[in-house]
Every structure is written in C-alpha cells, then in structure tokens.
Design goal:
Layout: E1 2-3, E2 9-12, E3 15-28, E4 36-45, E5 49-56, E6 62-64
Antiparallel strand pairs: 1-2, 2-3, 3-4, 4-5, 5-6
Length: 68
C-alpha cells in the first residue's frame, strides 16, 4: 500500500488507484484504553477492481478489507 502526501492511497496490491469513490472516518471506543480510529477509502484500482482499504490512525498501518 502506498499513500500520497495528502494521505490518499495511490497504489493498492501493486495496482495504481484510478479513482477514489468514497472516504469516511470511523471513531469508536474512545472511552476505552483501546480506541478505534480508522480512515476508510473505497477505491477503483487499475483493471477495474473495486476495493476498500483503511488506515488505522492509532498505529498508522494500512489494511485491505477482505472481499466477500
């Protein structure tokens, strides 16, 4: 996973991101010792595959959400 200087994903699974369809922020469990803060991105990658990736804003790591 590679992100641009603005934080948007530009390469996912070795494929260039052609379009960002949507982005949203999830903040939960803020009242606990293990808060959840994630920025999700729904993207279209080269070859036409639509996928969702997210960045864990607490640890800084990127993940690709499993497809059904």
């Amino acid at each position: 996973m590679t992100a641009g200087s603005d934080g948007r994903p530009v390469v996912v699974g070795g494929r260039e991101v052609e379009a960002v369809r949507e982005s949203w922020l999830v903040e939960d469990r803020w009242w606990t010792d293990a808060p959840l803060r994630r920025r999700y991105w729904e993207v279209l990658v080269a070859g036409g595959r639509n996928t969702v990736v997210y960045r864990d804003l607490e640890e800084g790591a990127w993940y690709e959400q499993a497809s059904a």
